[in-house]
Amino acid sequence: MAVTKSLGVSSATPYFMHNGTQNFIIYDPPHLIKSIRNNAHKSGLKCGTSEVSWKYVEAVYDHDCKSPVRMAPKLTDKHIKLPPFAALLVKLATLVMSHSVAAGISTMVALGALPSEAKDTALFIDRFANCLIP
Length: 134
Prior knowledge:
Strand content: 5-15%
Structural class: mainly alpha
Largest sheet: 2 strands, antiparallel
Order of helices and strands: HEEHEEHHHHH
């Protein structure tokens, strides 16, 4: 906390400037990652007028299971169905909220395998992944 104070971070200004860029402070990132994934899985998310739907993540996984070339090769049933205690694992959440899943959804939209609304889910996941790994 002393570091954030020295950088001028507060609840009113949750970021610090470095080389002209706003850098936001995220407290407890593992819990945040899991919470966002769990909420998307349970009931979806709404961001402004956009909706994030878990069914598009499932669609990428289902397509991958039938394809010799996978878009998100690290995904397993455990990532998608979240059996007991799987919701507690950060590793599973980070693999779902990844660039490869976002790219898979975008690819399926471009191929006409998913509706254009799925692009909102891809964009959300991609932006979220950018927060984790710039």
